[in-house]
Design goal:
Layout: H1 2-8, E1 13-16, E2 30-34, H2 37-41, H3 44-55, E3 61-65, E4 75-79, E5 84-88, H4 93-106, H5 115-130, H6 134-147, E6 170-174, E7 184-188, E8 195-198, E9 208-220, E10 223-232, E11 244-252, E12 258-264, E13 270-280, H7 298-313, H8 317-330, H9 335-344, H10 348-362
Parallel strand pairs: 2-3
Antiparallel strand pairs: 1-5, 2-4, 4-5, 6-7, 6-13, 7-8, 8-9, 9-10, 10-11, 11-12, 12-13
């Protein structure tokens, strides 16, 4: 059984958990790594990352806890529902990899070929990046990605769902047309025909920055449109500032998560205006749409986004864009890949769409 595995691996010391202070048993399909207190000093964070990487696409979940209540000379690991835990030394990369492989073996999980090598390169790349050795960091990230088995290069998150293609009851995070202000919110007024753009303070809306009057919904190429008369600036403008009015035309994206439109002033000039959807209805559930990459996928996603940022800084926008798209394919609900794509996009339209996805992911559902 598991106790025999403990004895067979000299790196591990099986420890009988005291009745009152025993760490809670891990689930039958998980590996729990303590990452607090003294365990952190012995490499708990590195062991958590190594175990997450070596677990790969296996069914086992790798989790952590801030403190398990025990303070041995090492890191406490509890595989699955074992009644005893392992105490390991993870103070270096090789020790952490050995400990992670042994703990996974004790949990009945075999490490897939390539994972150990790939994580080693990933770790080395981060070290080189901290040293500001860009060439070595790029080489190590490329080696990490090249060594990854196909199983960890499959999507780790479900794709983003489209939003309802409706204007009523929605709210949008926008810039002021022309880009003078950021973090503004466009909301439909209670009457339904007018919309107001404001900079929201913590508790109640601030002065109106722009108003849309007599808005009417329509359709353009199968996408919802909103046409209204605009007034800019409205209440709250600097005293003596002249009001401007014209026609606003907004077109919602196919997925309903953003809009792009124009404000056509009295002289015929058109200003581009974009927004990302915040929510439907007046109330917003306190839950962000976006999500971090799963624990076991974080290092894979990180390898692409970190390499992409280095490539972008070096002037290779095309390669950075390819890494952004790879990261998005892996974890479409993580904002980092979209943010990289917004900076490395091959067109203004792609950059705007990616930036809108970042805003949508960081907004409330």
């Amino acid at each position: 059984g598991i106790s025999m595995l403990f004895v067979a691996a000299p790196l591990f010391r099986p420890t009988a958990a005291p009745a009152l202070r025993s760490p809670p048993p891990a689930a039958a399909d998980s590996l729990r790594v303590c990452n607090g207190g003294q365990c952190g000093q012995f490499g708990g964070s590195l062991l958590l990352d190594a175990a997450s990487a070596l677990a790969g696409a296996s069914p086992i979940a790798v989790t952590t806890q801030n403190c398990c209540g025990e303070c041995p000379d090492g890191v406490i690991v509890r595989p699955c529902s074992a009644s005893s835990y392992l105490t390991v030394d993870a103070s270096s990369l090789q020790l952490a990899l050995d400990a992670a492989a042994g703990a996974l073996d004790a949990a009945g999980v075999s490490v897939e070929p390539g994972l150990r090598e790939a994580f080693g390169h990933h770790h080395a790349a981060k070290v080189e990046e901290e040293r500001a050795d860009v060439a070595s960091a790029l080489s190590e990230y490329s080696a990490a990605i090249g060594a990854m088995p196909a199983s960890v290069l499959q999507p780790w998150q479900p794709p983003l769902e489209p939003e309802p293609l409706l204007w009523p009851g929605t709210a949008w995070l926008c810039d002021q047309p022309g880009g003078a202000l950021r973090g503004l919110v466009l909301r439909e007024d209670k009457e339904g025909a007018d919309w107001t753009l404001t900079r929201p303070p913590p508790n109640k809306p601030g002065p109106a920055v722009l108003r849309l009057h007599s808005a009417s919904a329509g359709e353009e190429g199968g996408r919802p449109t909103l046409r209204a008369e605009y007034v800019l600036p409205a209440e709250g403008a600097v005293e003596g500032a002249a009001a401007e009015s014209g026609i606003a035309e907004l077109v919602m994206a196919d997925d309903g998560r953003s809009f792009e439109g124009t404000l056509c002033g009295p002289g015929g000039e058109a200003r581009l205006w974009r927004g990302a959807r915040l929510g439907v209805g007046t109330g917003m559930r306190r839950k962000r749409r976006g999500a971090k990459p799963p624990q076991k996928a974080a290092w894979v996603h990180d390898s692409y986004t970190r390499r992409g940022r280095l490539l972008l800084a070096a002037g290779d926008e095309a390669a950075a864009r390819a890494d952004a798209l790879a990261a998005i394919r892996l974890c479409p609900r993580a904002a980092d890949g979209w943010s990289l794509l917004a900076d490395a996009a091959e067109s203004e339209g792609e950059a705007a769409a990616a930036a809108a996805e970042v805003e949508w992911l960081q907004g409330w559902a």
